[in-house]
Each structure stands twice: as structure tokens, then as C-alpha cells.
Amino acid sequence: MASFSIALSGLTAASSDLDVTANNVANANTIGFKGSRAEFADVYASGAVNLNTSVVGEGVRLATTAQQFTQGNITTTSSNLDLAISGDGFFTLKDSSGYVYSRNGQFQENSSGNVISSTGQALQVYPPLVNGGFNTGTLTDLNLQTAQSAPLATSSGSVILNLPANSTAPAVTPFDPTNSQTYNQSTSTTVYDSLGNAYPATFYFAQTATPNQWNAYLTVNGTQVGTAQTLTFSPTGAVSAPAGGALSFNGYTPPGGANPMNLTFNFANTTQYGAQFGVTSITQNGYATGQLSTVSIDTAGVVSAVYTNGRSTQLGQLAMANFPNPQGLKQLGDTNWSETFTSGNVVQGTAGSAGFGTIQSGALEASNVDLTTQLVNMITAQRAFQANAQVITTANQLSQTVINIGH
């Protein structure tokens, strides 16, 4: 009887439906997992010519297990290397067999400084260009460059302060940084040599016998640098000379083999008002050696290393991938997919651009499995299995009845 084979196909279909549901439930807590849906098709004989439009079908078959690439919930974490995609797209990963694609953003640093997935694939980025931007035609492993950030020697800076207009020339000459009677005011900052060593730098100001005119001195690490530089103010208290307000202090040689230092500081915004000395700001362009402090990743996937000296370096931009038909991707396990003919060729791009979602650092995308829906599917599959089993039981009883007719 055909009913046996028809019911058997129903049992097989119900079992397949339950398998898909079971896999979804098992991965309800798998980061980046995308659930699947069993899709079925009816079966009819196609070989024989039959004009009878009321032909009985031959059962059911599993047409496909369709992946569902809906967005999973995003939860925050405490690691900057945990990444979530909000929207379309995949992370691009590489291992010995080639490129694979994933929505699982659980990344970590290995002993070589490379950022890898939990299963060992290297996260791919577009490398930075020398003049800024990124080379979107090349993929490379993301490496956190745990080496130190190179120092920069101080060469220039800016000083903004106010010198008292009612000052008189010091009674004691010549200038001596160790004798406060040879100058009127002083203030200090820090400068750096080419090896990243820090030194105290102190500015001293002495009113000259000429009204509105001051001599400025600079010592670095207690050693006077260059000669006195003259600052002249207008009757309204603004710097009138030198033009532009730049004073140069040249010829300091740091100990320890660093390059000689020539320092230029801009005093253009310094004033001579009233009776109070006040410092608004002193800035300089040097900095010490820096250790890697943290890694930041913005919504466009730009990865920056931040160092303890306040500097930051762009290490790359996450290489995002998408496909014309994501449901055609081949599931590899470990929440990874690979390109197939059905999925279409990979489309590469960057986060936040057309066709790609944005990146959230310190977050993970949870599985998109809805347990309530899966439990309902489980009940439906169970009832379908029971109904088809009942068809086999009924068909068997009919067969026994026919056999017993002759006895």
C-alpha cells in the first residue's frame, strides 16, 4: 500500500524538523549563531503521463534547511576585543585553509600579538596607509603591536602668561637661576629628549631698565639654554617684539647620548597687565616612550592602539564581508561560514558603509534563536510524527483485514 511509504516520508520529515529544532535549541546560547528552519515540499510522481488531475501524492520531503540571518540581541561585556555587528555583514577570518566568515565576535590576543577567534582564525583588517586612510585592496592579520610607542623630542611649544606691568628691574645682576634676586618671575614645565627622557624646564623673566621690556631665560635640568631672549610689549600690554612672539633657546645637549635640543616657544599670547603674575598654559610637542595601554575600536571598525604617553596609532580597519545570498553560505561549524556558488561572490567593505552594519566594541551578538518559537515547533513536529505513525498503524490494520478475508 502506498500509504506506508507516504506515512514513512512524513515520519522522516517530522524527524528532520525535530532535528533542526533540536540544533537550534542546543545553540540558543552560542554567540553569533544563526538559527535554521526546516522547509518541506510535497512529492508527486513525474515519470508517467497521467491525465487524472486527482492523482494522490507520494508524500513529503525536506526541501532545504534555510538559515535565518536575523539580528541577535547585543549584550555588553568588559573586553574591548569583544565585537558585535549591528546590521548586515560578517567578520573576515583567515586560517591555513583560507578565508571564512563569522558573526561571532569573541576575539582575543595570542602570543604573537595577533587577534584571533576562539577557534584560532586570525581577524582580518585593511592595513593603514602612510598618509592616512586604509588600503581596502589588501587584507592582513590584525596585530596589536605590543612594542613601545617611540618618543618625540621637544622642539617647540607655546607659553601663555601675564607679567606684572608694575615690575622693576632686579637689583642684582647678572642673571643666576639659583638667585631669586636676579629675576622677577619664573614658571616650569617638562620637556623630552630624543630618547624619551623627561627634564624639568624653567622659564625666568627679568624686567629690564627699559619700560615694557623683559629678558626671558630658559634652563633645562638646571642648565641655562642659549642666551637671554627679549620680549617687548606695546603700551596696551600685548607682545610687539619679536614679530610673531617666537623665542629660540638653542644648544642644550642632554646626558646619555640623546640628540642636542633646540627649543622654540611662542609667547605671542603673553600679556603685560596689572600687578599679578599668572600662568594660563604651557604646552610643548614632545612626549616620552609609551607602553600599550588599551585598544579602541570605533563604530566604523577602525582599530587604534592607545599608549601611556597619550599617543594613539591606527592599526587597521576591520574587513567586513557580505554576500548576495547569505542563505547560500556553507555552514562549517564553530559559527563559521564559507563562500559557495549559491551564496554568490563575497562583497568586501567597511562597517557603516552601504550594505554593512556598524561595529560595537565591548559587546557580543547573542544567538538569534527564540526558545519560545522552538518549543512550539517541537510540539508541532511531535504531533506530525505521531499522526504519521498512526497512519502506518491504520494502514497495517487495513492490510491485516484484507489478508484475513481469505481465511
Give structural notes:
- The chain has 407 residues and is mostly beta strands.
- The protein has three domains: 2-70 and 368-405, no CATH class; 74-148 and 292-365, no CATH class; 156-284, Flagellar hook protein FlgE (Tick-borne Encephalitis virus Glycoprotein, domain 1), CATH 2.60.98.20.
- The protein has helices spanning 2-26, 371-405, and strands at residues 36-43, 59-67, 74-76, 83-86, 90-95, 98-102, 107-109, 115-117, 122-126, 140-141, 156-163, 185-192, 198-207, 213-220, 223-224, 229-233, 239-241, 246-252, 261-266, 271-272, 278-284, 292-297, 302-307, 312-318, 320-322, 330-333, 336-338, 347-349, 358-361, 363-365.
- Strands 5, 6, 9, 10, 22, 23, 24, 25, 26, 27 and 28 form an eleven-stranded antiparallel sheet that branches.
- Strand 5 and strand 6 form a beta hairpin.
- The two termini are 20 Å apart.
- The mean pLDDT is 93.
SSE order and pairing:
Elements: H1 2-26, E1 36-43, E2 59-67, E3 74-76, E4 83-86, E5 90-95, E6 98-102, E7 107-109, E8 115-117, E9 122-126, E10 140-141, E11 156-163, E12 185-192, E13 198-207, E14 213-220, E15 223-224, E16 229-233, E17 239-241, E18 246-252, E19 261-266, E20 271-272, E21 278-284, E22 292-297, E23 302-307, E24 312-318, E25 320-322, E26 330-333, E27 336-338, E28 347-349, E29 358-361, E30 363-365, H2 371-405
Parallel strand pairs: 11-19, 11-20
Antiparallel strand pairs: 1-2, 3-30, 4-29, 5-6, 5-9, 5-25, 6-27, 7-8, 9-10, 9-24, 11-21, 12-13, 13-14, 14-15, 14-16, 16-17, 18-19, 22-23, 23-24, 25-28, 26-27
